[in-house]
Design brief:
Blueprint: H1 33-43, H2 45-64, E1 71-77, E2 96-102, H3 110-176, H4 182-217, H5 241-251, H6 253-275, E3 281-289, E4 292-300, H7 310-375, H8 381-416
Antiparallel strand pairs: 1-2, 2-3, 3-4
Helix pairs in contact: 1-3, 2-3, 3-4, 3-6, 3-8, 5-7, 6-7, 7-8
Length: 422
């Protein structure tokens, strides 16, 4: 599916920092597909939002590894009050005073389980980010192909207008020589006017395709005309449907995200069960009792007779069932998308082959025969006009078929989640 030597890999680079967005896009240089894709990753807001979601889960990953903070308790008890102010008693006469240090110890592997949950959350967010990139890259590549199609249709229309310019000049000479009637020259001029109008429409289509491309890129300078560098091609590729389906099941980031969500739900169940196990808090301290210096130590053990985290455990189990159901749905959708994209590719490939092996050659030959006969005076103008119109229609349909072929491969790569090489 190469386009004038340019081939866009389905592997997506990591987006750059937001600082890269401040540099305006240089539209004086033709936009290649690779350049458009790189710029798109820098500027697209949905991709940027997905990237920040990954960063958010990485922050949770840091928090999951943090141990509970210790505590320091300072106490002063059972001191006598003299007169109207309790603060008039000398410090040495306080009966009990001292600091106590305590540290909660998490039991049941809570910290390890929190870390595993956080790691899986990051892995899921990364897969979701890759899926956003996959979908948005499909959109931008199709927009680029649309711009290429519009430019090539304009070139074809200009070519046809040039053909009728030459035909008008030929008939002008023949009219002056008395070889044809003035009405025949008028017919050629009227036919040329149609292509003058068609050129205007084609130029408008090129402008609109360029604006749409800039809009998807997130550019604000929509007034500058866009020039794209590339051609619609039809390089044949050898693909096997069974291999594509297997590759899709391995590569599709949305399926990976769903599978990681199952693993995440499993770890959350284990974490919620561990949270039902009470943590202990050992403590040790110093205490001055009257004139005596003493030490104290012990352990605090919560008694969970009623709340053993049953609600959160039940919620985590339900989330696991939801994740399993969603994974089956995503798997079926992936296989269906590959099947549909493959059938679209087969249809587009067959149409391209029909044009290349039959229609293009036949249209050219029919026009050349009609043109030769007309120039030799063997036929009138109408067969030539019909042959030229047919050739133009065939060429336009061929370009649109090439576009459909490129888009079919584009959709197939999106369905597979990876590049399909020729």
């Amino acid at each position: 599916m190469c386009c004038s030597g340019q081939h866009a890999s389905a592997q997506t680079p990591v987006p750059q920092s937001p600082a890269a967005q401040t540099t305006p896009l240089d539209l004086s240089v033709p936009l290649t597909l690779e350049r458009v894709m790189t710029r798109f990753l820098e500027r697209n807001l949905s991709v940027e939002a997905a990237r920040y979601r990954v960063e958010s889960t990485r922050a949770d990953q840091i928090a999951a590894r943090i141990r509970p903070n210790p505590s320091l308790l300072l106490t002063a008890e059972n001191f006598k009050v003299q007169g109207t102010s309790p603060f008039t008693v000398p410090f040495g006469r306080l009966y009990e005073i001292g600091p106590t240090y305590s540290q909660t110890i998490e039991l049941g592997g809570k910290r390890r389980l929190r870390t595993e949950v956080a790691d899986l959350s990051v892995a899921r967010a990364e897969a979701e980010f890759a899926d956003v990139v996959r979908q948005r890259m499909t959109d931008i590549r199709q927009a680029w192909y649309e711009a290429v199609l519009a430019r090539q249709l304009l070139s074809l229309t200009l070519e046809q207008r040039g053909y009728f310019d030459d035909l008008v000049k030929l008939n002008q000479v023949r009219l002056e020589e008395g070889a044809i009637a003035g009405s025949e020259l008028l017919k050629v001029k009227l036919e040329r006017v149609k292509f003058v109008s068609a050129v205007s429409q084609a130029e408008l289509a090129v402008r609109q395709a360029g604006i749409r491309l800039l809009e998807i890129l997130g550019e604000t300078n929509l007034e500058t005309p866009v020039t794209v560098a590339g051609e619609l091609g039809a390089t044949p590729i050898a693909i096997d449907l069974a291999v594509l389906k297997q590759k899709a099941l391995s590569n599709r980031p949305d399926l990976q995200a769903a599978e990681r969500n199952i693993a995440l739900a499993e770890r959350r169940i284990a974490l919620e069960k561990a949270r039902g196990i009470p943590d202990i808090t050992p403590f040790a301290g110093y205490k001055r009792v009257g004139v005596d210096n003493t030490v104290q130590f012990g352990v605090t053990i919560p008694l969970r007779f009623y709340n053993k985290n049953q609600a959160e455990i039940a919620r985590a189990i339900a989330d696991e069932k939801v994740a399993e159901s969603e994974t089956r749905l995503v798997r079926n959708r992936v296989l269906a998308e590959v099947e549909a994209a493959y059938r679209a590719y087969e249809t587009a490939r067959a149409q391209v082959e029909t044009f290349q092996h039959e229609l293009l050659t036949q249209a050219d030959e029919a026009r050349d025969v009609a043109q030769f006969a007309y120039r030799e005076g063997a036929t009138d103008l109408l067969p030539l006009l019909e042959a030229q119109r047919t050739r133009t229609d065939i060429r336009q349909q061929y370009l649109r078929t090439l576009f459909d072929y490129q888009v079919s491969i584009l959709r197939l790569e999106a369905a597979v989640g990876g590049e399909i090489k020729p």
